[in-house]
Amino acid sequence: MHNKSVAELSRELESGRVSSVELTQQFLERIRQEDSKYNSFITVSEEQALAEARAADEMRAAGKATPWTGVPFAQKDNFCTHGVRTSCGSRMLDNFVPSYDSAVTGNFRTAGAVCLGKTNMDEFAMGSSTESSFYGPTINPWGLGSGSRRVPGGSSGGSAAAVAARLVPAATGSDTGGSIRQPAAFCGITGLKPTYGRVSRHGLVAFASSLDQAGPMARSAEDVAMMLNVMAGPDPRDSTCTEQATPDYTATLNEPLKGLKIGLPREYFSDQLSPAMEAQVHNAIREYEKLGATVREVSLPHASLAIAAYYVIAPAEASANLSRFDGVRYGYRCENPEDLMDLYTRSRAEGFGNEVKRRILVGTYALSAGYYDAYYLKAQKVRRLIQQDFINAFKDVDVLMSPVTPSPAFVQGEKSTDPVAMYLEDIFTIAANLAGIPAMSVPAGFVDGMPVGLQILGDYFSEARLLNAAHQFQQVTDWHQREPQ
Amino acid sequence: MSISREDIEKVAVLARIKVDSEQVSVLEQDLGNILNLVDQLSAADTGSVEPLSHPLDAVQRLRPDVVTEANQREAFQAIAPATEDGLYLVPRVIE
After folding, report:
1. What kind of architecture, by CATH, is found in domain B5-42?
2. Over the stretch A129-147, which tens digit does the pLDDT of each residue have?
3. Shortest Cα distance from A101 to chain B (angstroms)?
4. Residue A44: φ, ψ to 5°
């Protein structure tokens, strides 16, 4: 069962060959047996999962089943889940149990899906390796045999690892600078960052409000499309969420790709890119040519400024969003505070890890009097230039393609001593968050035995086309079906 | 672009995060490196460009000024470190 896709499990449940309760028990048992190797879950919500499974079986008996009824999945631990701890991978929220569901959680609940638990992540979604979690690092299921432990990527590393290890067929993630796409690439699964505003952020603990986007992670594009059908949609509780209705993302998966115009940004294929990675990405693009697509070079002239702009904007917005964690109303409070200032400064010093503190401090500096114009405002202007580059490119092509990461998953500890080395991992993914355009990571082969991904970027609200392109690629390749040894 | 110990201590106060002397030394290095990365922005020509704060240049939506939520004070306060009579307790501020 654990190798089946969401689509296959949905059919098994529909046929009555297995009940939701049986399926849930099987996956819970698998998590119990296997997750100590990966540490992909922070919380396994067994009781709630079985209650949801029973409700799903009743829903089916009453003739009200949806494609998701009874299907197990997991949620990244920055989605508020009513009655289930939501920690954001931080000591600050180790004791936080929300009294409400995020919009995404509520959507899955209404569809009858069964949440097995909350997955590990870089603390407050700040990171590219899931090494900064209060609950310890997650280990990439790939590369375990070789003796060294590889990172699963981050910040949605727990979700990526759990899906790759077949502990769940699907898991939610969030992507602010690449946090769905990069771990998807490192773990050999399929992930999508939707257009900014496509999925409601209500109940997704905020990191950088103009960049954050919730998104689906699963092994196949078809499963990702099924997830997006549930996750996307208008929501009056999130005023940045689009009021546009959601198409059925599964309905157009099989459109032929003949005539698809693909652009390859020359800035992403510089001599900085390793020959092995370049070869895999070009092999993938050749498959698209065989399917009838045409390829041409395009330019994103301001690509090299993306990381600098992001590492002003994201920390600045994070410094504002994380100011709510003050030890007063919820979350961690230091012991024996001497006065109010001590309560604030020590609760935050003790509750937050080092990367989070670094980013809050950089962000506070960038927004402070005397620096706001030089840093934050300047970065916002560069952001418009980066957006304009994409708008121009999409006049000539339908989609862009590029690597997701400069190299495959690195070894645990290799980049954690130098924050900036870690930041450079995001070099291909960050621009899509700054511009707000949708982008996917699709498994595209192996380098040195570790998975690598192909990034597909599209114009605003073109998720259906991206998923169609990914699905067609997955009909003629099997990278997405490989299992970690 | 480097950042001085003084600047770090000032910013730590603004951010309400306690930092000790050893941490300030580490932060001098780390924040200095990050600010070096960020300095690349100053080379960009952004003369007449408008800042972008929302990818779709959307405007804040408004809604009717009516009550739509139920009072859930008890549920919200159940997870607080210290409360009394519906208030959140903190160390004395005014002597």
Report:
1. Orthogonal Bundle (1.10)
2. 999 999 999 999 998 877 7
3. 14
4. -105, 115
